[in-house]
Amino acid sequence: MGQGVDHGAGHDQDMPARGDAPSRLLVDVGGTQVRFASQETATSPLSHVARYVCREFDSLADAIFYHLHREGLPKPKRCAIGIATAVTGDHVRMTNHHWSFSTRALQSALGAERLLVINDFAALALALPVLPAMGPRSTRRIGGGEAVVGGPMGLVGPGTGLGVSGLLPSEDGGTPVAVAGEGGHMTLASYDPEERAVLDLLHRRFGHVSAERAVSGPGLENLYTALAELRGLKLAPGEGRAAPAITAAALAGEPFSSEVVTMFCALLGDVAGNVALTLGARGGLYIGGGIVPRLGEWFDRSPFRARFESAGRLTAYLRAIPTFVVHETEQAALLGAGRALDRDTPTH
């Protein structure tokens, strides 16, 4: 499991006065986009919210300083970064992007009293309890079941990669603990014959077929290419569709793209069910990331929920667990990073 990296005071003595500017900078770093917000305290509203495309910057530091300059902000006193990779020490290297950095060097460059770096889905998990306060449209229920108050919560999210996390109650009944793992790289399997044949093709291509190889944006593209090969459809070299085009075509009713997205949703149901079983997520299973919210009601009619519940002797157990699509993923992830700043032990 990835651990949060937290550096304390000692690098901000020469900073100019900040006046009334927000003292906290919150950062959510995905494989495609980086998002920023400022905040005065954990209960304050977010301000100076912005997002940028990662590939437009050579490094995370470049993106941070560009944002501060663009918004007219001083360097922050405290900074929390949720990033899409395992955080296991001072050196952080992203899985699905080329950025890498030293947390100590970044803290020194910012002159921050505190710099906290955690997994991005651990940050999002920390925000799950406050989603109801963000309004009735912040989540959408899929299927039945009722959440057990105070029970463990599970989280999966296909985007540029596949994030997996959870929020577990503490033994003493205190602050829940966010799980910072790399569950998106678990080995993927299927009992459906056509899905198994598709995964065999991906195995020949990649060697190890993780869940992320099929249940993510690039994974959706992998499914499109592999299913086309399996069906004998001729694609020109390098043809294949990008993930947004595949989902758009499925929503428009194009048959083959619809079948690809249907397979994607079924496999996501398998992954989500396994996460719920592993964590005992009777407090609910939440679906973040950028892909599923765009599918809207199409997702509700997909095989996701049926496959989520399909677990043999444990089917009744999963049937009782509600599943929710998170529609405010960007804001929630930033709020979760802010909540992490106020925790003595942010993640485990």
Characterise the protein shown here.
With 348 residues, the protein is an alpha/beta fold. The chain has 2 domains: 5-120 and 331-340, 2-Layer Sandwich (Nucleotidyltransferase, domain 5), CATH 3.30.420; 144-321, Hexokinase, domain 1 (3-Layer(aba) Sandwich). It has 12 helices and 14 strands. A 6-stranded mixed sheet has the order 1-8-5-2-3-4, sandwiched between helices. Strands 9-14-13-10-11-12 form a 6-stranded mixed sheet, sandwiched between helices. Strand 11 (162-168) and strand 12 form a beta hairpin. Helix 3 crosses helix 12. The termini are close together. Residues 8-19 and 344-348 have low confidence and may be disordered.
Summarize the structure.
Helices cover 35% and strands 20% of the residues. The protein has 348 residues and is an alpha/beta fold. A hairpin with a 3-residue loop joins strand 2 and strand 3 (33-39).
CATH names the topology of the largest domain as Hexokinase, domain 1
Oligomer: single chain
- Helix proportion: 25-40%
> How would you sum up the major sheet?
6 strands, mixed
Percent strand: 15-25%
- Tell me the structural class: alpha/beta
Order of helices and strands: EEEEHEEEHEHEEEEHHHHEHHHHEH
- Please mark out the parts with pLDDT under 50 across 5 or more consecutive residues, or reply none: 8-19, 344-348
Which sequence of strands runs across the widest sheet?
1-8-5-2-3-4
Report the CATH architecture of the largest domain: 3-Layer(aba) Sandwich
Can you tell me the overall shape?
globular
Features:
Nucleotidyltransferase, domain 5; six-stranded mixed sheet; 348 residues; 20% strand; Hexokinase, domain 1; alpha/beta
